[in-house]
Every structure is written in structure tokens, then in C-alpha cells.
Amino acid sequence: MKKILAPSILAADFTVLGEQIKAASEGGAPYLHVDVMDGMFVPSISFGMPVMVSVRKCTDMFFDVHVMIEKPDRYVERFAECGADGITFHVEADEGHIAETIKHIHETKSLKGVPLKAGIAIKPGTPISAVMPYAADVDVIMVMTVEPGFGGQKLIPETIDKVRALRAFLDSEGLAVDIEVDGGISSSNIENIIKAGANVVVAGSSVFRGDIKSNVSELIGLMGEN
Ligand code: DX5
Ligand code: ZN
Predict the structure, then answer these.
(1) pLDDT score of 95
(2) Which residues form ligand 1's pocket by a CB distance below 6 Å?
(3) What are the residue boundaries of the structural domains of the chain, listed by start?
(4) 56 neighbors 84 (Cβ within 8 angstroms)
(5) Is 35 among the catalytic positions?
(6) Which of the residues in the chain have pLDDT under 50?
(7) How far apart are CA 134 and CA 130, in angstroms?
């Protein structure tokens, strides 16, 4: 599986967002992780469409949009129009409608003219059995390694066991699906999480605190050869 670092702009300085994204890109990050929160599914509200539209103008990076919102299906077209390349939504926020939302995402094209990638996410307390029925239909499964809602939290160690179990399940089914991890990842635990089977790694504070470009290249170095 290709290893990909996805810096999360939630931890960026929004007064100089364009410059900080450029630094992350120069450091070698191919993805930009965009966290959308609605104050309902998670207690916090982050940012939405206008920010995505502005940022889309300043980079070609893959926009990995992580929607922490109720009924995510409502916004698939809007996020695509604002520049999303992939949309990952929470199974906990879309009960009874998950297969339809995945299909809807795949049927929608990005501004680059290609179908959106579809991802499903689980919170730390949700078992991997919640995503298993959809594993063959998605491009990425996100295992949250902190409770969604805020950046800068400490990784919950038990979530690494979920990553390991999920990779074993995907391998046993012959499915080459990305496993993305999100929350509390830094140079001190990234090697462990890759070893457990994750291949897409979100990093907010550990990228945007300090020298962004060198943080990115250090983390990519620790992820190992592609
Ligand atoms: C949390 C968000 C994360 C967050 C990660 O709900 O989904 O993407 O930005 O931030 P760090 O890496 O600081 O934990
Ligand atoms: Zn996220």
C-alpha cells in the first residue's frame, strides 16, 4: 500500500494558511486533510465551503475531506464543487444510509473531472465490524485514533489494535483498501502505526507546530519507503 502523509489544516495558522500549505507541499505531503465539523456530530465547529474554495486555488494537493457532520450525504455535491478529491464520513453519523452515501460519493466528480474517492470513518469506541460490510466498496477506511472534534489530543493506544485487526481482515479478503489514521500522531508513534497496517496518516499539530517543511519530511521519512 502506498504510504501517504495528510497534514490537517485544523492545526494551521489561518492568517497565513496559503504559505503554510505551500510549506507542507514542499516538504513532500501529497494530501491535505480538511476537517469539517458541524457542532452536532462533534461538539466543535471548524470551517467549511469558503475556506475550501480559497485553499483550492493555492494548491493541487489531494483534498482529503473528513466530514464530522450529521447526514453527510446532503453535502456531497457541494464539497465536490469546493474542491474535494475524496470524502470520508462517519458511519455513526449515517446509520441506515451508508451504502447509498458511498455510492453517491463515487458517482460525483471532483473539479479535476474524476470520481471522488469514498471513505468511511469510525470513532475510537466503534468496533471494526461496523465498517467490514462496506470494505469492498470504499477506497479508504479511517480509524480515528482520538475522539473526533479537536486537534492536539493524545492518541488512544487501543486504537492501534483496531488498525492491526482491520488490516488482517482486509488482507484475508484480498482487499487493497487504504487504512487512514487520524489524531495524536507524531514522530514518536508514526512508525508503530505504520507497522500495525495504516498507510495514510493524518497529522495536525505535529506538522503545523514548528518548522512545517522539516516536520513533514521527518514524518514521511519515518513512514518508510514507498
Ligand atoms: C480531529 C480531526 C483531526 C485533527 C488531528 O477530530 O479529525 O484531523 O486535526 O489533529 P492532531 O494531529 O493534532 O491530533
Ligand atoms: Zn480529521
Answers:
(1) 86
(2) 8, 10-11, 33, 35, 66, 146, 148-153, 182-185, 202-206
(3) 4-223
(4) no
(5) yes
(6) none
(7) 8
d(CA 20, CA 11): 10
Cα 43 from Cα 214, distance rounded (Å): 32
- Cα–Cα separations (whole angstroms), residue 94 to 89, 91, 132: 8, 5, 15
Q: For residues 145 and 14, what is the distance between their CA atoms, to the nearest angstrom?
A: 25
- Cell numbers for 33: 486533510
pLDDT digits (tens, 9 = 90+) for 93-103: 998 999 999 99
Tell me the residues surrounding ligand 2 (ion) with CB < 5 Å.
Answer: 35, 66, 182
Question: Is 68 strand, coil or helix?
Answer: strand
Q: Give the CATH H-level superfamily of domain 4-223.
A: Aldolase class I (3.20.20.70)
For residue 190 the three cell numbers come to 508514526
Q: What is the pLDDT of residue 217?
A: 98
